[in-house]
Amino acid sequence: MPTVPAAVAGLRADARQNRDRIVEVARELFAERGLDVPMAAIARRAHVGVATLYRRFPTKESLVTEVFADQFEACVSVVDDALADPDPWRGFCTAVEKVCTMQAADRGFSAAFTAAFPDAVDIEQERNRAIQGFAELTRRAKATGRLRADFAQDDFALLLMANGGIITESTETAQAASRRLVAYLLSAFRAEQAEPLPPPAPLNLHDVLNPPTSTTRPAPPASTRLEPAT
Amino acid sequence: MPTVPAAVAGLRADARQNRDRIVEVARELFAERGLDVPMAAIARRAHVGVATLYRRFPTKESLVTEVFADQFEACVSVVDDALADPDPWRGFCTAVEKVCTMQAADRGFSAAFTAAFPDAVDIEQERNRAIQGFAELTRRAKATGRLRADFAQDDFALLLMANGGIITESTETAQAASRRLVAYLLSAFRAEQAEPLPPPAPLNLHDVLNPPTSTTRPAPPASTRLEPAT
DNA sequence: CGATAAGTGGAGAGCCTCATCCACTTGATC
DNA sequence: GATCAAGTGGATGAGGCTCTCCACTTATCG
Q1: A74, A98, A100, B121: which is deepest, by most CB within 10 A?
Q2: Which of A47, A180, A219 sits opposite B201 (nearest CB)?
Q3: CA–CA separation, A183 vs A195, rounded Å?
Q4: Which stretches in chain A have pLDDT values below 50?
Q5: Cβ of B12 < 7 Å from strand D?
Q6: What pTM, to 2 d.p., does this model score?
Q7: For chain A, what percent of residues have pLDDT higher than 70?
Q8: Do B201 and A177 touch (CB under 8 A)?
């Protein structure tokens, strides 16, 4: 078993350096400015030509996938850690806080997490693992009586989307805002003040995280021709 | 005083019809698909050429401004209504609910509300009126003791941004989700369970609603040249 | 060191956007 | 109904994006 991730296995030394630099730079730029940052900008900052970029990552989506792969892994670990906590409610809270902090720290995170990634099988799996882990966490937290009984599984999707709306120029501000929002929401999730809630919202975590479209939202192809024309 | 809004005053009959149709169609499309919808699509669906569109609205921003003008007005009325309510806390809640519902019903709403609108003076005023009205509402609601004392003025910005993150394919889903999110948050805003909160978040309503950039987020012009090049 | 395959950069194709131009059509007026 | 300014639509710039092509450079290995 090679310690190198197989994709960089047979690469020439300089090529590998370049590849690493590209991923590093892409991570920075996606975090700072979101997934909209042009490939040319990434190439420039990595001091390579666009051709080099496209040689390693045939499509922008593949680059995004690569860049966010370990972020997804980190998410899964967060949920695993939470499941290991003897106090399920505390585990629930810290898991939510950690994931939301990650989301707030990285502008591209939400978009990448929400994207379809039709070709990234492993990401798909990670995602499902995280979702199932969180379902279990929810079940246990409810069992302790600390999490309100009418908390819906899909309220987690609600939380992710809401937290994804907290995007500001500076990462610091975004994180502070996210912290406060999450504090408010966790307080609302506690069983103590279980005021009746409106209908559980027909959201579905799988649906939210697996929209029918592709990564950079190319918009439904039919949308180009809106009208039968004059 | 003409009943016509002055912009359509001296227009020929057919031109006025076209203008009205454009605004109507633009409202629909912005609501359905957000501000990103191309001008050509609007023109096509309104059965006019792009030239006609640009004759009436020299820039896309001006069209957006026109389309959302009465939405802004509606917001102001909501706040005014809330201020008229003898029960400030109830006023606070209904105001929040109504505005968030409007936001969820219209995909373009958040973007338009958040946009800079450097040329739309009246919108600027409406916005400030709404903000001040809401500040007063907050003050009164706190005075009754129902709204938690550590609720920050800027938490309203938090709420708007979070609710803005609730965007789905169908408007119905978005509204249901928004309803539930708002219910959670309002429950957290109640004074009863005033758990200590993290720092008040350095958000500012004015800043959030008046970012330094323009409408359709043209991105900082310097961002094109990221690096001094090789 | 010299051969060679692997790696490279920049030009540019193709598509999309906002916005403009101008030859043609049409509603309002006498 | 004739006149003509007001109104119109489609072609077209200008500029952004993703992604491709190909002549040139360079690391690696005998």
Answers
A1: A100
A2: A180
A3: 18
A4: 1-2, 211-230
A5: yes
A6: 0.86
A7: 81
A8: yes
